[in-house]
Fold each of these.
Amino acid sequence: MSTQPKEIDVQELDGTDEAAFTGHAERHRRELHVHCYRMLGSFQDAEDAVQETFLRAWRRRETFEGRASFRAWLYRIATNACLDLLAKRRPEPATGGEVLWLQPYPDRLLDELTADEADEPETAALARETVELAYVVAVQHLAPRPRAALILRDVVGWPAKDVADLLGDSVNSVNSALQRARAGMREHLPPERHEWTGGEDDTDNRDLVRRFTEASMATDIDAIATMLRDDVRFAMPPTPGLIVGRDAVLADWIEGGYPEMTGLRGVPTAVNRQPAIGYYTWHEEASAHLPLAIDVLRVSGGSITEVTIFGPEQFVHLGLPASLPAATDEVSR
């Protein structure tokens, strides 16, 4: 099992050139990126925030005095970069159930995270739950500063005093904001959170995802219906609208022409520690299957309780193929 990158001190940074400084900072890139992703809900915005973090860190390197760890200093800069970005791009928190700017986070990149206490079951569960889409969506409904307080206290594990120092507030103000943020999270998180998505070793979940994929490729609405919970939720960011309820979701898919689609192929993947399927559709002119959409599923109690669909532009950073070759029957047409 890997461990957290070795911390550096002030003396090690004295006289360090930009390349060496960047090397020190790069050790923390993935965890900072995930932190920014929780704050912003967007993979691309998190990329921008991390780049800004490294730029600010280099320009303000003299402010690292060693009283806190280099890692904590970077988290401080990253959090402020996120707050600045939120002030410019999203002056208001999300309203309603959908988050239009939501983007998926590939598990292959989450696997790069180092582990300090990840051997502890509680910590591993926390890390998984706080990157799942339902959590990220709920966080986006909080105003930026309470959002930062919640993530720094409950996920990163900072003491209230350090959060207060970063936000320029008193400890009492931070604790008050944290209580409000936790209440807001309870309002927007799924009620069955204790039945959170099963792990990879959950045979029943894997079988359910396999059957859903097969039924989806066959556009078998009746089979799909048996796997959706009555109160299933469906969103397709950045398209506005959150649809709740099996009948309403299926009616929307039928109205959109889904049952008439042919030549679908699905590639299993995983994002946000959830099962996902990348779907491709046959294009005669390209003689190949090209990206169509990515279904991200949330499973609870043996049923699919949430389907979030992302567009083909997400295939690249999820590491999915740009195309799939023709199957034998397509070649012979």
Amino acid sequence: MFAWITLLPALYIGGRYILPLHLPLALRLLFFIGVVAVAQCHLVYKLVFGNRFAPEFPHSMMVAINGLFGTLIVFTLLLILCDLISGVQFAIQGTWPDYGLVRHGLLGVAVLIAAYATYQAVKVPRVKTVNLTIQHLPKAFDGYRVVQLTDLHASTLFTGRWMKKVVTRTNQLDADLVLFTGDVADGSVEKRFNDVAPLAALQAKDGRFAIPGNHEYYSGYLPWMQRMGQLGFTELINRSVAIEKAGNRLYVAGVTDEAALRYQQEGPDLEQALAGVDRHSTIILLDHRPENARENLAAGVDLQLSGHTHGGMVYGLASIVKRANKGFSSGLYTLDQRHLYVSNGTGLWNGFALRLGYPSEITLFVLKGDDTQAR
């Protein structure tokens, strides 16, 4: 179904731009074949590598493919806009205007926009600091520094070199906790072994904790859980841990991703994750998807950290992503004095590496207590 949808822009460009070009038929045909190949890049990934989630083309080729795919989408939208304007002029004047030169200019604009969107996707993310007031936070945890990383998607696009820069930037934050909310890599442990290796150098005073996202199941769940342990992460598979300071506790709990059910693994279970947890204590929950936040917060969770949406990635698409995730796609949401934070993602799936308006992030939370109430 997805292949047919992405074919439509290629057909539109073929009919409205390539066909009218004053070029030999053979050149126009080659041009159109190239456009179709870009439109069907995900099908190509599946045919060549057996998996559309983990293409293994070299880094520079993956950057180029994503830039071309972005150009295809943007140019299609600009052509549609141009044709709508032409239709209005036809209705008013009775003649169809010739916008041939304009269309060439629109192609140039599309290339520039797509190049910028690709750059925004693949660059090392900046740190986003969120000062967050937590109801009844124990004074011992006031100023506590929690770093969230998510959706790293290690691949030939996001390589070990990129990962090392992410780790260096994260370690400069003097984190008390580093929390990872899933989708560490695309591809098998063997192929991504060196790409994720820099994560072993992450530093946090009170530990590093993680949960699986959906892509861990696509890429080999058990080997990836073992690899994350080797890298120093404690996986919270429907369980929790307590962080103690001055006789006070803060709980970090984690649930699995619903994709687990399709791979005969343990599905998400909040009750199991919170078993034995004092519901009056401060609870941070790691849940890769944000869609269950209302239920999770109502169960006593003070802060849910999620990823998965990549923030919506680009204007327009973000509204669709938001509806698909029950109204949550990017940033901080406060529900009855409890919080959900949906990260835009530290990395991005290399099958759609484009960002416009929703930049990648390394998220630093500085926890503050509510001075009006005491624990």
